[in-house]
Amino acid sequence: MLDVASVGALEKTDLWSCPFAVLDIETTGSIAGKHAVTEIALVHVAEGRLVRRWRSFVNPRQPIPRFITALTGITDDMVAGAPLIGRILPDVLEFIGDAIIVGHNVRFDAGFIEHELRAHGYRGLANPTIDTLVLARRTIAEVANYRLGTLTRELGIDVERHHRALADATATAELLVHCIRKLEDQGVFTYGALLEYLRLRAQPRRRQRALRQPPGQLPVWTSILRDELAGVPSKPGVYLLKDAGDQVVYIGKSCNLRQRLRAYATSGAPAGLKVQALRGVVASFDYLVTGSEFAALLLEARLVRQHDPAFNALLRNFKEFAFIKLERGPHGRVVATTRLIADGARYYGPYRSMDAVRAAVAALQDALGLRGGDAPVADELPLPPGQAEALVDEAVAFLEGGADDILLATARRRDEAAARGRDDVARREDRRLDRLRRLRAGHAELEYAIGLNVLVLAPSTDPSVEQCFLFCGGRLTGECELPRRLPQRDHARARLAALLAERYRPNAVAHSFARQEEIDEVSILSAWYRERREGLCYIDLPSEEPSAGLAARWATAILDGEPLNVRGEVPQNEREQQHEAAAQEIEEEGCAAVVCGPLLDLAG
Predict the structure, then answer these.
(1) Integer-rounded Cα radius of gyration of the chain
(2) Which of 105, 271, 362, 397 is a Cys-bridge partner for 588, taking CB atoms 3.0 to 4.6 Å apart?
(3) Helix (H/G/I), strand (E/B), else coil: 289
(4) Do 17 and 180 touch, CB atoms closer than 8 A?
């Protein structure tokens, strides 16, 4: 452990001569003390080279959530015989020694180790730390975001698999070396100079005051909007922008309608290409107030499907989302398609990019020897009877989390090609392996989202009632308003019971895919359910279709704040672990977009 004198000497040390211990861990969740470590990896960096690596599985003494397994590939069986954290802490301390601890979002990794050290009677870590997330933001420009996966792709750093400790620690070490080279270009040569460099915040650029046009020179609709802006409430809702023919050209949502519309009306405000184009088209506007941002998102998605506005490109192209289709039979095959047909085949999706789906399908076809065309090729040898169906069954098992031998065989071919010096073949198999992993992880995410049977209670524009949204298999199947006042309790109970009895059909929804027109609602619920955003009330519902009497009992329990007897379901504490694990993935950058979750992007 470093003392004050050692830290002072370290500040004068050249960055290339500083000892670095790059740390990465995998866990069952994001809260130290509540969740546990499943894997630890450390990489020593000296003089710009990765000189030593160490890795170990850890028995967490608690089940690994399914989402974590889908994310990392680490299963309960893999860690069952691993040492407990207390047995490997001495090895961790020996490896770190007096080195500077480095990590990507290092507070997370070091925080878990610090907690375990103190829980097992150690003094804790006194080593200085460096966060490569901070370094990357100060030294690397023109990237979409600063997640480790994005940076490694942009910099060409080879990573076998993200979300495994040794692979991520190695990638972080390579990123550290890249950042140190960038720091030298800015005159930062010692550790002390680096600390000073990080203390000094970049000076904000002065914005030139934009010249505001007189109201008479503004577009007609902007002048109208400026006049009517005072009547727009500062509340959540949806706004509709219309052209001179009263045709809706854009639909948006906002937590603050007045503030959002003011951005359109202020000619001197910075404007992107879309806003500039809208200013030249729009002649009037309308808006609808909602009680919450959650309700505004659902309403926005519904109105976009209804009006199909020209400027809502992101939400209106849902018809182009692709599916993976698996057909059984003597000529079994796996193909990419944009159509859902009741033909007995199995469908998975939808996915955002057809090109990425085709690449993933090709990888699965090659791995299994399945066909992909509409008809057998003339010189193609027919498969023995029953083999095509068996291969399709294996493809289904792989997508749904089994058939790991497909990944193992692909990884083996890659390694054998690399050993023979066939770099082109090794790269091809590595790309195929990455696509297969993304494909299965994507379905795991979809399966989670369309497995949500939830009742969501949200604020309403009328304080005497609350909005009630019923989701079955992740899809919005019904909604109503429930009176909140005690004298109307029987009326609220009757309305909720009727909604459950008439609209809740968990056995009637598809469990391997969502239709294109359903994907927005599924995505919105998935994102909000994970984060428990805005203090909405979420009630998990049993996976059984209720009779009128059972629906009445559920309604009574819900309004009384009592838990439902969700038989055979995942316990609530385990479900929360899954949510926290999902939040860990986006912790470094925050939640970027609401439309995520099952709207899968295999292209990464």
Answers:
(1) 28
(2) 105
(3) strand
(4) no
Q: Which among 476, 522, 478 is positioned nearest to 500, based on CA atoms? A: 478
Catalytic site residue 163?
yes
Q: Helix, strand, or coil here: 455?
A: strand
What does the pLDDT look like over 18-71, one tens digit per residue?
Answer: 999 999 999 998 888 889 999 999 999 998 889 999 999 999 999 999 888 888
Q: Could you please report the per-residue DSSP string of 394-421?
A: HHHHHHTT--THHHHHHHHHHHHHHHTT
Buried b or exposed e, range 470-491, using 16+ CB within 10 angstroms: bbbbbbbbbbbbbbbeeeeeee
CA distance 114 to 104: 16
Predicted pLDDT at 211? 37
Q: Please give the domain boundaries of the chain with CATH numbers for all domains.
A: 4-199 (3.30.420.10), 215-315 (3.40.1440.10), 321-443 (no CATH), 450-585 (no CATH)
Q: Where are the strands (E) in 226-380, listed by range?
A: 237-242, 248-254, 284-289, 322-327, 333-337, 346-351
User: Which residue is associated with the tokens 């073949």?
Assistant: 425
Catalytic residue among 35, 44, 104, 163: 163
Neighbours of 10 (CB within 10 A): 21
pTM of the model: 0.53
